[in-house]
Amino acid sequence: MSKKHSNQPHGTNDLVEKILLDKNEVFADVLNGFIFNGQQVIKPKMLANTNTLSYYKANGKIHSQNRDVAKLLTIGKKKVVISLVGIENQTRPDKNMPARVMNYDAAAYRYQLTKSKNLYPVLTLVVYYGKEAWNYSRNLLGSVNMKKLPEEMRPLISDYEIKAFYRISDLSAKGLDKRFKSAFFCLAEYFIQTNAGEEYHPSAKKLSVEDIMLLLDMMNALSGTHAFDELIKELEKRDKNEVTTMTEVMPQFIQVKLDRAKKETTEEVTKETTEKVTRDYLLNILNTTNLTPDGAMDLLGIPEADRPMYRDLLKKK
User: Which helix (H) or strand (E) covers residue 62, if one does?
Assistant: First the structure.
């Protein structure tokens, strides 16, 4: 059976957001998907763990700063380090993000100087999951007030730019499968759909159950909801070695939504509502897989007696 999965309190959201991306296969997938458009350039075996915590002194006190996730990128059998790569998750726009990234990168270079005279490059990716437009500058000087500074001095002020900035909502849903091969595919799909005001309809992407539970945890944390708590409990009952898809757990997901609707309203959830929700999931499965209508209904566990009705509903759509 799968390892016991604990319900995370709200205060641990930052930790939850890091667990999935800290897996080498997911970290590599994010780099390949965003930087190389899905080409498998970065292999999981090329990644090595590194410290994400650094310290600085301000106002006479020692403070700490912690990256979300960071890995060393290596090459060859001797694992020669060629770069440090960090990923920062953002759910809201932050005008101070360039300064934060600069601090992370500077700390990484400062640490290198204590170990060697030869520096390797540091790259920080900012992945933005939010629905709201990012209207702040991605350059440090874009958020620095230099109006009172003499004009002769302004060109001499060093800038710092976030070059690796990726907004989930800017991705095309149709091209996601080519970009991402890991659980991050479903995470991107979820935010593309929900940020557009759509109901979440997962594709039939094969993932391990363990990854799916980490994925659902991260969806809860990044969206600020507990929408998937009940579904996580259902997955705990499955064999950890079982390979499944998000689509295969849809019967439980649909039932959870209907149960929640019953709790949130005094009115009975109508038969029409249940049929509409199920029909929408059937349509999404048919649009994202090569399954037949009967195959899609098999995935959702629709009884034989109800299938003629759903075939008619699909024809009318």
Answer: strand 61-66
Q: Are 124 and 105 in contact (CB under 8 A)?
A: yes
Separation of CA 249 from chain center: 19
Is 43's pLDDT higher than 60? yes
Cα–Cα dist 207/26, whole Å? 11
Can you tell me which residue has the tokens 């999965």? 5
* The pLDDT of residue 63: 46
19, 217 Cβ separation under 8 angstroms = yes
Task: Report yes or no: 171 and 192 within 8 Å, Cβ to Cβ.
Answer: yes
Query: What DSSP character marks residue 139?
Result: B
Cβ contact 167:131 at 8 Å:
no
Residue with the larger pLDDT of the pair 270 and 280: 280
Q: Quick check: 171 and 186 in contact, CB under 8 A?
A: no
Burial of 253 (0-12, 13-18, 19+ CB in 10 A): buried
Q: Residue 87: helix, strand or coil by DSSP?
A: strand
Reduced to 3 states, what is the DSSP secondary structure of residue 27? helix
Q: Which of 22-31, 221-230, 258-267 has the highest mean pLDDT?
A: 22-31
Rg (CA), the chain: 23
Angle at 16 between CA 250 and CA 130, to 5 degrees: 75
For residue 237, what are its two tokens? 């009952």
Under 8 Å between Cβ of 124 and 104 = yes
